[in-house]
Structure formats: structure tokens, C-alpha cells
Specification:
The complex is a heterodimer of chains A (about 500) and B (about 170).
Chain A lengths: L1 H15 L3 E7 L2 E6 L7 E5 L4 E7 L4 E5 L10 E8 L1 E4 L7 E2 L16 E4 L16 E2 L4 H6 L2 E2 L5 E5 L4 H14 L3 E9 L1 H13 L6 E7 L4 H19 L5 E6 L1 H14 L13 H9 L3 E4 L5 E12 L7 H9 L2 E5 L1 H5 L12 E2 L8 H24 L7 H17 L9 H12 L8 H17 L1 H13 L3 H20 L1
Parallel strand pairs in A: 8-14, 12-17, 12-18, 13-14, 13-15, 15-17
Antiparallel strand pairs in A: 1-2, 1-6, 2-5, 3-4, 3-6, 4-5, 7-9, 10-11, 16-17, 18-19
Chain B lengths: L9 H18 L7 H7 L3 H13 L7 H16 L2 E7 L5 H13 L5 E7 L6 E6 L2 E6 L1 H25 L2
Helix pairs in contact in B: 1-4
The chains are: A alpha/beta (about 500), B alpha+beta (about 170).
């Protein structure tokens, strides 16, 4: 093995006719002298077999970002490869967990690619993009009805640690994978246990074959962790070019920013706000701009939907990286610590969440639901604040609060459950027309569970629901139909 | 020959740097008139020769502490500006060979340099040279290997013919 790698190192030397020597090491930044013709971002190989990428080119020496945990030794020879860092791309990536350098984590072998692409491609221009018109269904009630997403949207998922962000993302992956979308999960500097949990979720739900995990654990080299989201996005572009819709999750970009800050400080870059490098915004913007809805050559549309994750501390969304990401993306879903503590799952704070392009993808019925819910929830919030004063409540207020409780209960959803959009519309409409006005929350939950089970198992029942929804031209029309047939549907589900 | 040309290899340079540190330390502990004594007894002959040549050439006084210190530091800066020429050869060179190699580079218009010589038997003959980041392989190892492969191929064919003809 040593002879082979030695042979290939010698061949790199002879091809480029240039050599460098390590003269200073501030791991993972290695300063080398020599290599007069090297380019920025070029891949270099060390005599000992390690790979590195040129971080900067200077007159006297060059900075190399090393992709290995152990530092290089002074005096080690370095050769140019005369190419930039590329990763292997092939359909056989599906179902695999790979490292950011394209190595299969299970076998430890490099993937043999049908194609090799540079990690830093230029985002497509304006003329290649199309308006976002197709909805992206997550299977989570509160998001699909209140904070709708579209295919090609970049929606930031933001919140404190342990507030259910990853659970929501896995639910979205489950729904989309079942719909045929390729799902890519990029775990950036995650614990090995967390990556394993994601793998197990995909296996248990039989969506492994439609998913790819690009994983870098916290124990790996900083250079490798830094590359993770770029590798994931390059893989997404490969499948997009095959005409497949892709969902990519970057978990999480605040960690990515921390590692990039560490690299920049070690490379002696002048620190900016919070010691982050001056090009922090550019790094993330350039990455996220590669997602979107695109036109293909044959006139169709294909999308890369990106859900980057950002972590906050004590709910502070005014941090540097968080505000950067909020301005780059097309909206954000905020996971509230307080709501999580109250037992709400998912702990999405609708009032602090935004979707900038999701509404244009909604059908007329969903748009109607969204409008009604918006008004209702705003009014409910104000009313609940008055209730604290202990004033006497009239019938109208009591009904409002009761409806609020039922809707809150409807939005509570177990992490392993995803609900198809038509079923969400139906269940909400049944609540809205007062089907369970006099029933308790547990009775309502039981009936809903029965309807859900019937919907998923009975083709005839499912078709009936779909035909009811399709026959309604808007939300009010749907309510009109369900006021006659709603109770019948509930009774039918109990049989 | 200039004083700096007495330092031909990185090994020489390393030794002379160590000696310079000893001399600089001595300046603060002993009287300046004993600098000459230190030079004769506590450093290598090469360093002694180098400094004697240097001070003579520049008409400097061994007794003046400031002058000695200033010039020692100036020489250290000159050492830092020396370019390294990396040479990989098959055998450990003797001093004569080192001088010849140094002279060759000097005659081919290289200046202000020092040789970093490493030994690798796989070179077999010739040398592998790195100058200013450029890599030049003048080893006969690859040619020998190609010749051996060709020879082996020919021998195999001959054996086949022999087997066929029965001779």
C-alpha cells in the first residue's frame, strides 16, 4: 500500500515538475514552501499520503488546509495534483453513508463514480431558474397548513438545541422520500450516535434506498467537517441534473460557521464580528444559492429544496450567523424552547416563523385554511392574554378558547407520524365545522386516529375523501360539503 | 571564496547556527577580549574559519561587543535568506563530492544557496533535484526498470521459441 501511494506521489511530482516542503504547521493549516505554480483551491498530496487543499497562495509560502486529524511533519514533501477537489458521483450513492471526501463509511473504500464534480460549482443564473409553484409537503400539520413550503425553497429551521428540529427534518424526509424525492442529510460535525440514529430512522421506515447521508463526526479533522455541506450540495446537483427533485438538509450551519471560524483564525485571517471571518456571509450565501427551482432543457422543472438548520442559544435569533442565514433563505421555522417545555410537539412558534414563497404554491383550499387560521390564531393569542386577568368569560370567548384547544391538540403530532396533506385538510375542516365541539380532546384524538388509520388502509375510503376535496372549489365550499357528510365520514371510520 | 561559501550543506548551516547561539550567549557572560578564546575552544573549526574570514574581510574588531553582536545577527539574517537546493542521491557523499556539487551549481549561476542532501538508494544513479519549488528527476532508476522489463519480455519470448523448437 505504501509502495502504491509512494508511486503515485512520485508520478504527481513528475507530472507537475514542482515540489513543496512543509515549513510550518498550525494544524490543520500547513505552510509550505515551493510549488510556484499552485492555484487557490487546488488539491495537493503529501508524501505521507494525506490530501490537502490550497487555502491561500502567497509570495513566500502557501497555506494548505489538511484533511487529516494528525498534523503533517516539517520537511514533508508536497506535490500538486493539478486539479481541484472533486467527489465521485453515481446512483450507487443512494442508501449509503459517505464521508465528505466520498468514502463509504461502512466499507472504508472510496466510491467509484460515474462522474466527478468540483465541490465549489457556481450557482445557476437567473435565466435557468423557474418560479416556485409546487408545494413541498412535510407531513407535519402545523407546517403544511400554516407555514407552507415550496419545492426549491430554502427554509431555515432554527431553534435551541433539543427542541425537535431534527425530528421535524426526519418527518419531512419520510414524507418526501415516500413521494419519490431524493433526500440528502448532511450531518456537520455531529456526534456519531446522532448520525447512527438518523440511519436507524431511515432503515426502520424503509426509505434508506432513496436517501444519502453525508456525515462528518466531531472527531474528524476540521478540514473534512468544513467540506460536508459542499459535498452534500454537489450530490444534490448531480441528481437534479438527472431530472430528480432533491431535498437536502444541512444540519447544522452554525456548527459549520464555527469550524470555518477556527480555520480562518488559525490561518491568521483578520477576525470580524464575533471573530468570524469577513467572508462568512459569502460562504453560506454561495452554498445556499445552489438550491432552487430550475428549468430543464426539455422544458420541465426540477428542484433542490434546502432546509438548513441553525442553532440558537436561549432563543436568541439575533445572533450573527442566525441573522445571516435568515436573510439568505426564503423564510424560517422557529422552534420555541418555551413551547417545547409546555409539551408542544413540534414546538413550532407560528408567530415567529415566516415563509416567503410557500404561499404561492398552495391550492385554493389550503390558502383558505391558511387565511382563516391566521386570523383565528391572532385573535386567540390576544384573547388568551386577557384570560390571565381572571375576567368572566362569555359564551363566545369560551367557544373560541375551546376551539383553540382543539386546534392546538390537532397540531400536536408524534415524531414518528406523518400525515398526508389531503388528510390534514380534511381533519382540520372537520374541527372547523365543529364536529367535535362538545367532545373532549381525547375523544377527538381517538376519532382522528381512526380516520387516519382508515384513510391509510382503505382504498375506497381514501378515494371518497379525495373526491370530496377535489369537488370543492374553495375552503368554504369544502366546509359546506363536510357539514352534510362530515359526521358520516367519522362514523364510517369507526367501522 | 566568500565566507558564506564555506557553508555548503544544511548540516553545516545547522551546526553553525548552534555555534552562533553559543557565541551570542557568551557575549553577555564573559569579557569581550575572551571572545577570541571562545571562538578557538568552544565552537567548531568551520565556524571559527567562517567568522575569522568574515571579520577579516570586513575589517571588524573582535574586541568590540556591539560590533560582534550586530554582525552575528546580520549573518543570521543572511543565513535565513539562503535558498535550499534539495538533492537526493543514491550514496552518502564525501566532502570532496559535496564541494564538487556545490561548485557545479555555482558555475551554473546559482548564488546564495545551500545544499540539502538526502540519501535514497532507490535513486540508483543520478539525482533528484528540487530548486525554488521546481522538481527535476535525473535518476536512472526508471530507465533501468524499463530496460529490465524489456529484457525480461525478450527472455520470455526466447524461452518460448526454445520450447517450440526443442533446443
Amino acid at each position: 500500500m505504501h509502495d502504491e501511494s509512494q508511486k503515485s506521489f512520485e508520478s504527481y511530482l513528475e507530472n507537475a515538475n514542482e515540489v513543496g516542503f512543509v515549513e510550518k504547521v498550525i494544524h490543520p493549516i500547513t505552510h509550505i514552501k515551493g510549488l510556484p505554480g499552485v492555484h487557490p483551491e487546488e488539491l495537493v498530496v503529501f508524501e505521507t499520503g494525506e490530501l490537502g487543499q490550497v487555502f491561500s497562495v502567497n509570495e513566500d509560502s502557501h497555506e494548505i488546509l489538511l484533511f487529516k486529524k494528525q498534523p503533517a511533519k516539517i520537511g514533508t514533501r508536497v506535490a500538486r495534483t493539478q486539479k481541484t477537489l472533486e467527489i465521485p458521483l453515481t446512483n450507487e450513492l443512494l442508501g449509503k453513508t459517505i464521508s465528505p471526501l466520498g468514502i463509504d463509511v461502512q466499507t472504508g473504500q472510496s466510491i467509484q463514480g460515474q462522474e466527478y464534480r468540483d465541490l465549489r460549482s457556481i450557482p445557476p443564473g437567473i435565466s435557468e431558474r423557474a418560479k416556485i409553484t409546487s408545494p413541498l409537503i412535510t407531513g407535519v400539520n402545523i407546517v403544511d397548513l400554516l407555514i407552507p413550503l415550496g419545492k426549491g425553497q430554502r427554509e431555515l429551521v432554527i431553534g435551541d438545541r433539543k427542541t425537535g428540529k431534527t425530528n421535524f427534518l426526519l418527518q419531512t424526509m419520510l414524507t418526501q422520500s415516500q413521494a419519490g424525492t431524493i433526500c440528502i442529510y448532511a450531518g456537520i460535525g455531529k456526534r456519531l450516535l446522532e448520525i447512527k440514529q438518523v440511519e436507524e430512522f431511515l432503515n426502520q421506515n424503509n426509505i434508506r434506498n432513496n436517501s444519502i447521508i453525508v456525515a462528518s463526526s466531531a472527531s474528524e479533522s476540521i478540514g473534512t467537517i468544513y467540506l460536508t455541506p459542499y459535498t452534500a450540495m454537489t450530490i444534490a446537483e448531480y441528481f437534479r441534473d438527472q431530472g430528480r427533485d432533491v431535498l437536502i438538509i444541512l444540519d447544522d450551519l452554525t456548527t459549520h460557521a464555527k469550524y470555518y471560524r477556527e480555520i480562518s483564525l488559525l490561518a491568521n485571517r483578520f477576525p470580524g464580528r464575533s471573530s468570524y471571518p469577513g467572508d462568512m456571509f459569502f460562504e453560506h450565501a454561495r452554498l445556499l444559492e445552489r438550491a432552487g427551482n430550475f428549468k430543464t432543457e426539455d422544458g420541465k422543472e426540477v428542484s433542490i429544496t434546502c432546509l438548513p438548520v441553525a442553532e440558537t442559544i436561549e432563543g436568541n435569533i439575533s445572533g450573527y450567523i442566525q441573522t445571516n442565514l435568515m436573510s439568505i433563505t426564503d423564510g424560517h421555522i422557529f422552534f420555541d424552547n418555551e413551547l417545547f417545555a409546555q409539551g408542544r410537539r413540534p414546538a413550532v412558534n407560528y408567530f415567529l416563523s415566516v415563509t416567503r414563497v410557500g404561499r404561492q404554491t398552495q391550492s385554493t383550499i389550503r390558502w383558505g385554511i391558511n387565511r382563516e387560521l391566521n386570523t383565528f390564531l391572532g385573535f386567540l393569542e390576544k384573547t388568551q392574554s386577557f384570560v390571565h386577568f381572571g375576567a368572566e368569560l362569555n359564551e363566545g370567548i369560551t367557544t373560541l378558547l375551546s376551539m383553540g384547544e382543539k386546534i392546538t391538540s390537532f397540531f400536536n403530532q408524534h415524531m414518528s407520524v406523518v400525515i398526508p396533506i389531503n388528510l390534514q385538510v380534511l381533519l382540520f375542516s372537520l374541527i372547523w365545522i365543529g364536529t367535535w365541539q362538545t367532545a373532549s380532546k381525547s375523544e377527538m384524538s381517538t376519532d382522528m386516529q381512526q380516520i387516519t388509520n382508515k384513510y391509510l388502509s382503505d382504498e375506497e375510503y381514501r378515494s371518497k375523501l379525495h373526491s370530496i376535496i377535489d369537488s370543492a372549489k374553495d375552503f368554504n365550499a369544502l366546509l359546506g360539503i363536510l357539514s352534510k357528510e362530515g359526521k358520516g365520514l367519522v362514523e364510517l371510520a369507526k367501522k | 571564496m566568500t565566507p558564506i561559501e564555506t557553508i555548503k550543506t544544511t548540516t553545516d548551516l545547522h551546526l553553525i547556527r548552534q555555534d552562533f547561539q553559543v557565541l551570542l550567549d557568551e557575549l553577555y557572560t564573559n569579557k569581550p577580549e575572551s571572545f577570541g578564546e571562545t571562538l578557538r575552544t568552544r565552537v567548531s573549526h568551520k565556524t571559527h574559519l567562517f567568522l575569522t574570514m568574515y571579520f577579516q574581510k570586513n575589517n571588524l574588531d573582535f574586541k568590540n561587543t556591539d560590533t560582534i553582536e550586530k554582525n552575528l545577527k546580520k549573518i543570521i539574517d543572511e543565513f535565513n535568506d539562503l535558498n535550499e537546493i534539495h538533492l537526493t542521491i543514491a550514496l552518502e557523499p564525501d566532502p570532496g563530492l559535496i564541494s564538487d556539487m556545490y561548485q557545479w551549481f555555482k558555475e551554473n549561476n546559482y548564488s546564495n544557496f545551500v545544499l540539502n542532501i538526502s540519501v535514497d538508494p532507490r535513486v540508483i544513479g543520478g539525482a533528484v533535484i528540487s530548486i525554488d519549488g521546481k522538481y527535476y528527476k535525473y535518476s536512472i532508476a526508471d530507465d533501468l526498470e524499463a530496460s529490465l522489463i524489456e529484457l525480461n519480455k525478450n527472455l520470455t519470448q526466447l524461452r518460448k521459441i526454445d520450447a517450440y523448437t526443442g533446443s
